[in-house]
Design the sequence.
C-alpha cells in the first residue's frame, strides 16, 4: 500500500524502516525511523511480526514500491510504501519552515507598524507626553533596572512598547524586564496576554501567584486587598530579578479621578504620585511613566492598530467587563462620568483638576499633614 507523507502520522504504533545507504541516513532521516540496508531488508524483516504496521522509506519511493509488493506476497499484512520517499518528507519540512518564516515576517511587520505608529501618528499625543513625564519627574536614571509590570490591559501593554522605543532611541543607560504576574487568570485571559505580547514583540517574564484564591475569601473589599497583594508580589519578584524600580501603567485620567475621589469619598486632598519609594521593600521605587498620557489617546492607539486587550481579568467579579475603560457601577466610574460631564461644559476642567494639587497654597489651607503629622493654620496664625 502507498501512503503520502501527510498521512504518515495517522498510522499508530508504526515501524519506519529506511533502506537508504547508511551515510545518507546519517545525514538526515524521519524521526523514529531505523536504517536497514536494502540488501538486508528481506532477511531482517523476519524479526518483525507479520501483523506489524511497517512503512518503508527510500530516497524517492521507487525502490520501496516494489519491495512492499514483495513483502505483501510473503504474508505481511500492513506494509506501506512512503510515496515520494525521503524527498517527500524533506519537501514537507521545507514547506512547513517557509510557512513559519512567513508567519514570523508578518508578525514582525505588524510589530514594526505598531512601533512606527507610536513615533509617527501618536508622537504628539503619546510619545512626547511619555518622555515629558520621564524628564519632568526624573523617573529614570542611568543604571536603573526597571520591571515594566504588565497586567494585560491597554495601558500596561502600551507602556511596554514605549519603554522599548525609549531604550532604542533614548540616551539613558538602563535595563528592562517585562514582568507579568498570573494571579489566577482564566485560560482565555492568560492566552490573550501571551498572544498580545507576541504581536507586540514584548519578551515577557511570567510568574505565578494565588492572589485570586486568597482575596476570594474577603467579601467586603476584595479589590482593595487584591491591589495591595499584587503590588507586594510585583515588588518582591522585581527585587528578586535585580530591579530597583517597578513601572505601572496609570495614566492622566487615573490621576485626576483619584484626586476627585479623595475629595468626594475620602474627605482628603491627595494625588497619585508620579513616583514614590516603597515603604516595605528597601531600595525599591514605583514610577508611573504614563502620568501625562490621556486615556482616550491610549484607546485610539489600540483601535488604530486593531489590538484587543483584556479589560478586567478578575474572575471574582464582572464589574469591569462592560465599558472600554473597564468600569461599571464603581466609585471610579461615577467620578469618571462626573468629570466627563463637567469637561463637556468646560474643556479646562481636567487640566485644572490635575494642576490643582500642584498649586496648593498652605496659607489658605486649614490643616495639612507632613510625614504623617497634622499641622494647623493656628500654629503660626498669631
Sequence:
Amino acid at each position: 500500500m502507498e501512503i503520502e507523507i501527510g498521512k504518515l502520522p495517522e498510522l499508530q504504533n508504526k515501524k519506519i524502516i529506511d533502506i537508504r545507504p547508511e551515510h545518507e541516513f546519517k545525514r538526515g532521516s524521519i524521526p523514529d525511523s531505523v536504517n536497514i540496508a536494502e540488501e538486508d531488508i528481506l532477511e531482517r524483516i523476519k524479526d518483525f511480526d507479520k501483523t506489524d504496521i511497517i512503512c518503508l522509506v527510500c530516497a524517492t519511493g521507487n525502490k520501496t514500491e516494489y519491495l512492499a509488493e514483495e513483502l505483501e506476497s510473503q504474508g505481511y499484512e500492513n506494509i506501506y510504501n512512503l510515496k515520494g520517499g525521503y524527498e517527500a518528507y524533506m519537501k514537507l519540512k521545507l514547506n512547513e519552515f517557509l510557512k513559519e518564516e512567513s508567519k514570523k515576517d508578518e508578525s514582525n511587520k505588524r510589530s514594526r507598524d505598531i512601533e512606527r505608529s507610536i513615533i509617527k501618528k501618536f508622537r504628539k499625543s503619546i510619545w512626547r507626553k511619555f518622555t515629558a513625564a520621564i524628564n519632568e519627574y526624573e523617573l529614570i536614571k542611568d543604571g536603573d533596572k526597571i520591571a515594566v509590570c504588565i497586567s494585560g490591559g491597554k495601558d500596561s501593554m502600551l507602556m511596554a512598547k514605549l519603554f522599548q522605543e525609549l531604550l532604542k532611541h533614548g540616551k539613558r543607560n538602563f535595563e528592562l524586564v517585562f514582568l507579568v504576574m498570573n494571579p489566577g487568570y482564566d485560560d482565555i485571559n492568560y492566552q490573550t496576554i501571551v498572544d498580545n505580547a507576541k504581536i507586540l514583540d514584548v519578551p515577557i517574564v511570567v510568574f505565578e501567584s494565588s492572589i485570586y484564591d486568597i482575596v476570594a475569601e474577603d467579601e467586603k473589599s476584595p479589590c482593595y486587598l487584591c491591589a495591595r497583594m499584587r503590588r507586594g508580589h510585583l515588588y518582591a519578584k522585581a527585587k528578586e530579578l535585580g530591579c530597583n524600580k517597578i513601572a505601572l501603567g496609570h495614566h492622566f485620567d487615573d490621576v485626576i479621578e483619584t484626586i476627585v475621589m479623595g475629595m468626594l469619598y475620602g474627605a482628603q486632598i491627595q494625588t497619585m504620585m508620579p513616583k514614590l519609594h516603597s515603604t516595605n521593600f528597601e531600595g525599591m521605587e514605583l514610577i508611573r511613566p504614563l502620568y501625562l498620557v490621556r486615556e482616550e489617546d491610549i484607546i485610539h492607539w489600540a483601535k488604530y492598530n486593531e489590538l484587543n486587550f483584556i479589560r478586567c481579568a478578575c474572575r471574582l467579579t464582572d464589574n469591569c467587563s462592560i465599558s472600554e475603560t473597564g468600569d461599571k457601577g464603581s466609585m471610579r466610574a461615577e467620578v469618571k462620568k462626573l468629570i466627563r460631564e463637567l469637561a463637556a461644559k468646560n474643556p479646562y476642567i481636567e487640566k485644572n483638576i490635575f494642576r490643582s494639587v500642584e498649586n496648593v497654597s498652605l496659607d489658605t489651607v486649614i490643616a495639612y499633614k507632613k510625614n504623617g503629622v497634622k499641622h494647623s493654620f493656628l500654629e503660626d496664625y498669631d
Summary: The longest strand covers residues 175-182.
